[in-house]
Amino acid sequence: MKKHSADQHQLWQGPAQDLTYTELCNALYERELMRYAKMPPEFLASLQKRLASLPFYIRRAASSILSNKSPLEIDSQNASWMGRQNPQCPAKEQGIEQIEQFYSKHKKLALIVPVYQSQQAQETVWLDSVDEIDLAGQRLHCNEHGWFSFNGTPLTDENSDKFLLKPTKSLMTAACCGHQWLNGERKSPRVLSLRELLLASRLNWQNFAKPFQP
Q: What pLDDT is attached to residue 123?
């Protein structure tokens, strides 16, 4: 059984694994503290609570990353996944028929999904998870990116520049590695959020319809 535990690093053997764990934690701390420093004033009220929970989530993320059986390489010094970037965004490989077929069959809560966004000629694939399903309306809600129909079509003005896609190896690689394209050409990867890193560590690369439980 696959375990996801903040204390799992204690089960590892060898200094190399301990060093990688330490590098991951340091990189994640640096990244999150920088993100907090740039938060607008309205978030200051919750800053103390966020900082108090930060060590738990960082240890959990580092342990989950190292315990995940992924085809991607991990850059521990930058806390990021590395994989080959396609010359063009793989989102264009899919049609609404195959997307609808997938979600009609595999819809479920906590399913990890790729969300495509095209904004000002920049293409990005984000990791998200399903947190609500409306069977009558044939639609589902992604935690951060809103409502989509089972065929991937966005259903609100707020997510009109996005599209829900069927998870495939090429798309999940793009999402996990932060791959981006601008005017159809490869661009430097974006940095994943701590939440996305945790989602990536739960991916079942043998069967995306059955992600591992946290």
A: 97
